[in-house]
Amino acid sequence: MKLTTKVGRLPAYWHIILTLLPLAAGLVCLAIGEYPVSVRDILISVRDKLTGQQTLPTFTEAAIWKIRMPEILMALIVGAGLSAAGCAFQSLFANPLATPDTVGVASGASFGAALAILLGAGMVMRQAISLVMGLAAVLLTWLASAKKRRSISTIVLAGIMIGSLFNALVTLVKYAADPENQLPAITYWLMGNLKGASYRSLLFGAPPVIFGLVVLYLLRWRMNLLPLSEDESYASGVSIRALRFITVLLATLITAACVSMCGQVGWVGLLIPHMCRMLFGSNHLSVLPASVGLGAFFMVLVDTLARCCFLPVSVLTAIVGAPFFILLMRKGRGWQL
Predict the structure, then answer these.
(1) Over the stretch 291-324, which tens digit does the pLDDT of each residue have?
(2) Which residues, including other chains, have CB under 8 Å from residue 125's CB and lie 6 or more apart?
């Protein structure tokens, strides 16, 4: 039974639930960590920020606002962004196994970050180079696909080729890196890490993600046309080529910005949209908002667990995501576009 109305829209109460769920998880997860803080202290700290007072110890204030708050905000943004990008790519390629790295964007962004670490660039410059390389990877994928017969299959094949090329370049950078300092930094970053989150990194990386999410949300009803052929979509009055180009561009921008902030985080863009389709149906009027809300909620929980276990977040997303995805596949009937 799909949890949607006849027209495929989410009921109002589901919008409220999917909005409050990640926010409530973020509030609770602010209290969890090596230095425990009660939810009451968090609410007091918020009140103090609004009134200009300070009733809590300085270390508690620093733990809440300088360490955990940027990390929680990044987890919310990255989870929502990767889930929305995965939803867009799965619909674009009519494949439930499509991920945000289908067109090589994550590999290109990872190469940019690794190159920036090798050159000794700072955090903001690292994000800038990573974002540019992610967009460059998609541009190369588009140029590498057959121009006269550019189709979804040729774009996927070109994306696999470009992704392999950038993965090889990442290996080359790791080979040339200093084994004492640079190589561990590159390796640790590639595992996916939100611990280095700061308001400065969010200021650079969050706007592209938010912009992409807003535009995808406004286009969500048109995204139902993505799996159709040009002849089938002609009657709707929508240019399917333009729609596909805009979708790829927005999903790429979101993915590259997420990777530039925290490295590669797998499974979020695959698992969450697939689960949302099984729960809410295939209509993007419901699937896209659900993917954003559940993706943010999932990422906050996994990041908090990773922080408590002192593990890279991508390790836990794989450990949690793989068995859960198998369970969904065994109990569900899959999904159709």
Answers:
(1) 999 999 999 999 999 888 888 888 888 888 778 7
(2) 116
Residue 75 near residue 303, CB atoms below 8 Å: yes
Amino acid at position 142, single letter: W
Question: Would the pTM count as exceeding 0.85?
Answer: yes
| Rounded Cα–Cα distance for residues 83 and 296 (Å) | 8
Helix (H), strand (E) at residue 64? none
Q: Which two tokens stand for residue 76?
A: 């919310």
Residue 8 tokens, joined:
């495929």
Cβ partners under 8 Å of residue 164, min gap 6: 107
Q: Is 192 left (phi over 0), alpha (psi -120 to 50) or beta?
A: left
Q: How far is CA 232 from CA 90, 228, 238, in A?
A: 19, 6, 10
Using CA atoms, how far apart are residues 196 and 99, in angstroms rounded to an integer? 25
Do residues 155 and 142 touch, judged by C-beta distance below 8 A?
A: yes
Cα gap 322→73, rounded to integer Å: 25
Query: 28-86: per-residue pLDDT in tens?
Result: 999 888 888 888 888 888 888 888 888 888 888 888 898 899 999 999 999 999 999 99
The helix-helix angle for 240-262 and 69-92 (nearest 10°) equals 150
- Whether residue 139 contacts residue 159, with contact meaning beta carbons closer than 8 Å, is answered with no
